[in-house]
Amino acid sequence: MSRLVTAPRRIVKTLLAKPQSEGAGATVRRSIGTPSLRSLNPFLMLDHFSVSPGAGFPDHPHRGQETITYLLTGGMDHEDFAGNRGTLNPGDLQFMTAGKGIMHAEMPRQNPDGSANVGLQLWVDLPKELKYCEPRYRDLKSEEIPSVSVDDGKVKIKVISGKSYGVESVKDLAYTPVVFYDVEIQPGGRVEQGIPKGWSGFAYVLEGGDVIFRDGQTEGEEKKVSQWHNVVFGEEEEEEEGADGVVARVDETETKPGRFVLIAGKKMDQPVVQYGPFVLNSQEEVYQAFVDYQSHTNGFERAKGWRSEIGKSMVH
Questions:
Q1: Contacts of 113 (CB under 8 A, 6+ apart)
Q2: Is 62 assigned to a binding site?
Q3: Is the pLDDT of residue 101 over 90?
Q4: For the chain, what is the total number of helices (H) and then of strands (E)?
Q5: Residue 240, annotated ligand binder?
């Protein structure tokens, strides 16, 4: 395979996403948005969620950010105060822009075998000028996502957003520029993936065998990373030479493939003040968000008296 990445990124840190409770009865493994990694500009939070029937994320508000939800197994219903509703099936994504205000619910399907509904949710900051835009949803169905197979079939990449080995994603789904790849490497396989210079990037290992990432800090150095760990890469904005990116492989002695998501985003030069579901640029704006939500004004008018149908299915 020809060298696509001549300057592998440094590995700044790796951290284990420990399980914690969230929502109503849901369990999440959070690797961005914790004391170990408060944020990774422009990313605010990454949750690997597991939601059993009877649990979920009932009616709650947002302002000032986008969420990207990637469903891995099961099904999730969503519904908001503007009458938008739909279902995510395995491999589907939803990009939600909260903008000036949205109130919605995200609830799991009741799987016949009682199994949990598993996926990723990534919170992405919105540029200051878009904090108060109109809310919107954009869905990407599994069958719409192009994929590419490389290294004699030992590597499969779903190109959710961005470009990989000449294959481009079908559309930009978020306002904030983000690249997003789902990578599965069979034992003995190897992959190289470029990342735009100066963008923040990370890889989260979803399942399977350990993934070995090249550490650009020292020539030839590698780091073995296991399931539920997030690898945070450094970026050298002053680095002019070579293609900047990530090199990963799975050792041929592994008994199963390693699967990870590789995500990067364009950094923003703006303050971030977050309180729960409100992400703004100042303390005053956060305070105003609470006032607007409680008084049903300035984007939250439709929250007055609204209750989602799917939220009513919660087991009390």
A1: none
A2: yes
A3: yes
A4: 1, 27
A5: no
